[in-house]
Amino acid sequence: MAKIVKLDSSEVVIATDEKEIIRVPYEELDWRPEVHDEVEVFKDGESLIITRVKNSSNSVEDKIHINVINTQNQQVSTSQSGRVVNKLVYVLLALFLGGLGAHKFYSGKTLMGILYLVFSWTFIPSALGFIEAIIGALKPSDSNGNIVL
């Protein structure tokens, strides 16, 4: 098996197994030669026929890449800023016990629940609870009847 050992400006230098050096002009090759390419050299009378040997290299470019996506187990991460609560329970708590902050305790907002409880004598938390009951009733729920607060 012969090998390309040098690329000159006008010709390709090939070394054969018999320790011969063959110089071939670029025009006689129908492919782009590179140093260390393995070639086969055939003599046809006075002319030479040179073909490149396909290498079975183990480089990363030669390997098969299979990209498999398992659509059965994909998890979509949705960022939620709040807590998931049952819509019906939240609306009923806000409507009937909103003045005491029961809906705030239920939704995990303990500090706001305490503030509602402290200021419940002013009836302002009752008005806010009524408004939050309406807002909660208008929020779209998921298939389980939950909303994010």
UniProtKB/TrEMBL annotation:
Q: What residue stretches are annotated with the TM2 domain?
A: 85-134
Cell location: Membrane
Q: Keywords, A to Z?
A: Membrane, Transmembrane, Transmembrane helix
**What is the recorded membrane topology of this protein?**
Multi-pass membrane protein
Its taxonomic path starts at: Bacteria, Bacillati, Bacillota, Bacilli, Lactobacillales
> Where along the sequence do coiled-coil regions lie?
none
Q: Which is a Gene Ontology cellular component entry for this protein?
A: membrane
This protein is called what?
TM2 domain-containing protein
Q: Which organism is it from?
A: Enterococcus lactis
Superkingdom of origin: Bacteria
| TM helices/strands, residue ranges | 88-106, 112-135
